[in-house]
User: Fold 3-isopropylmalate dehydrogenase from Tumebacillus lacus.
Amino acid sequence: MKSIALLPGDGIGPEVIAEAKKVLAAVGAAYGREMTFESYPFGGAGIDECGDPYPEVTAAGIRRSSAILLGAVGGPRWDALPLEQRPERGILRLRADLDVYANLRPVRVHDVLLSYCPLRPELAKGTDLVIVRELTAGIYYGERGRSRANGEWQAYDTCTYTASQIERVVRAGFETAQKRRKILHSVDKANVMTTSGLWREIVGDLAPEYPDVKVHHLLIDNAAMQMMRSPSQFDVLVTENLFGDILSDEASMLAGSIGMIPSASLGPDVSLYEPIHGSAPDIAGLGLSNPIGTILSAAMMLRHSFGWEAEADAVEAAVFRVLEEGYRTRDMTKVGTEAVTTSEMGSLVAEEV
Ligand code: ATP
Ligand code: MG
Assistant:
């Protein structure tokens, strides 16, 4: 029996979570798996209900759960709040609380999606990669400041990594590669940055422990170019927080819509699953949102948190069969062509499962 904590959040979050829940219920029925679902207030909804984007009732519920499925947070309604009190603050606190240091973002360009890819289709064909991004250290968490000196402003952000922070995420990269095509690209800027020098050293030290994995070192600027030149050469990329943030947004466009991409944030205890998109307040409540990123995030949950490989495969196969049959939400259709609603897409995938 698995207990799943749902954090629907704001904007399109509740709509896409409802569709993922539908698909999980279908998995339970088809495979005889028992799952319970409990929803908790989070983000703007947490602020409205409890005065806190990450309320105690949510933190307590998460501690009792087997895994967490998150929609998205934020929206214009809370934009006037100071940074420290905004919905987004809840996510940073949640990630730190869970210590989810490895963020996995798979990008798969299925043949039926090639026509949405901004590249020439022959370049993106066959792309099936995972970016493993370090999520809880580096420049986003370092000391920062602003001051005036010699009559002008100066500002600084510091990037710090300890050897153990690098080692644990690099191991996640190697282990991910071992389960796939066994190619690991470690992405850094070792010709300029000291943290990258340490990163590269640690990758080199760990490589002999994974003799079946072929390791390549790549500078971030070259990686960004290669991602557009020939993305199908990549299997697993492992990189630090800032580089991973930028590289994964770049790579997500290969699959045609931001609504398509799932993610898993793995740590020592309970893991967190969410689509990479935001709360999309411009389309909330209209049935226009694409729930596939969230449905695929739920599949990652089945695989990584529960070890239910066949069930995860079934969800992924169902998604691509529905796409093959020609069904699309509005973000993936050309003007003047038919689209299905968020809820219809969820039902189609659930039936296929
Ligand atoms: P955040 O800061 O929370 O990431 P954002 O403003 O960067 O939010 P999104 O909320 O992801 O961005 O929205 C960016 C654009 O993509 C919007 O036009 C939105 O409507 C669209 N979009 C995002 N997610 C989806 C989805 N699941 N289906 C369809 N369109 C989407
Ligand atoms: Mg965004």
